[in-house]
Amino acid sequence: MNISSSKTNKSKISASQKITGIVLLLAAITGVYFSFHTPVAYHIIPANNPWIDDYSAIAAMEHYKSWGTYNVHDPACKKVGDTYYMYSTDAIFAENKEEAKEKGVPLGYIQMRKSNDLINWEFIGWAFPEIPTKAVNWVRSQANGEGATNIWAPYLIEHNGVFRLYYCVSAFGLNTSYIGMVESNSPEGPWTDRGCVVKTGKGDVMNAIDPSVIEDPKNGKWWMHYGSYFGGLFCMELNPETGLAATEGDQGHLIARRADYEKDNLEAPEIIYHPGLEKYFLFTSYDPLMTTYNVRVAYSDKPEGPFMDFYGQDIKDTTNNVPVITAPYRFNNHPGWAGTAHCGIIDAGDGRFFMAHQGRLSPGNHMMNLHVREIFFTESGWPVVSPQRYTGNPNRDFNRDDLVGEWEIIRIFEPPLVRDLIAGQILWGEGDLRKGEQAESTIVKFEKDGSAGNANWNFNSRKQSLNIKSDNEEISNLIVMAGHDWENEAETILFTGLDKEGCAVWGKRVK
Prior knowledge:
The protein is mainly beta. 6% of the residues lie in helices and 39% in strands. It contains three helices and 34 strands.
């Protein structure tokens, strides 16, 4: 498998060259007219969305049982039997502590949900009755009595019928942090605290937050990836029998970092193993969570790394690595999404994988919706995600005539603007996206003769893949699938893939 799809040295590709390439291709394929066209074989079918995106009407504390897909931040999900269990940081739009106390609603203790279909989610409560004392004591001892007011970024893994839930407690803006682990015989708890996995404080380079744990199927070793913009991401070995550090006091080794943490955030590692490809994929989140948050991915032959990017570079160097597989975007007939990162990867157990992440509803970017997208793998072995949220669309094959019609196409890109950050996040009051930070869709018409404005398209029915070629660029092997058009409430045809610079390309047929 050729996991690296380009031999180009990324350091030689300037930001202006990237933007020029995008502009040239979009210019080439947008010389279209907008007449209505109905393909011969495939008709777009109206279909309601399973829920609305603006949940302000049920944002009050007493409606928490209705937050199935709402107030989801830093999700982690595992399938247990026929049920998917999701755990997430207790971030709440319109949080009101006095109202919560009056209504008997706990705050700060890891939200739990479950689903049988990855579409409809039941809010089942909070994992903890309180923040574990050892975590609170450590953080406050390092932060002058401050911090430890919430539990962040959980992660679940099973071992011999026992469920281990990893969690982190911190003081915002400091690397005084604590990753602990609790156990239960049920994914719904109750949980028993088993103690500290790793902790960081004054004098440490790294930050003990955002755990992700994996077992090496070849030798049974366990590894935990964790970290943030404080020093980068680290990997440490765990003892499978205890779920804690294999060597007491070990903080692991560096696996990923960025160059300038005053403007470049990095956090939220999530690692999976793909048995068919025999590769480990490490998903990471870049930039500030309320605005240009985006997901990158790298691969390795070993769970402990090293991890390589699209250009074959080790991600512990200071390059801004690609591929970029999600970033802020907007299709027509919708206000769009920011903060599309901190993902949890879901193994459905049947060969399929899904990505769960927050999406912050623009333009306010404070309401946090759950996005679950199916993952597909390109010909060269890179994971990419559907341009639309999963609604249980059945698999089916298409023919060339099905693709004739009007499409909306989005080119995902690296955020072009630079912002000063505090603790990896934007300054207070700068939570709106700025012009140029959100990928917008372009209308393209695929004609029956294979033209698309000043470009051409062709479809390989055997591989169910699409190529788009202009005089300046060719985007090859885009993966075509059935899916739900969320913005227009219809069942349609979608495609996803990567361009030659490692940025996602998304499309959906709209007419």
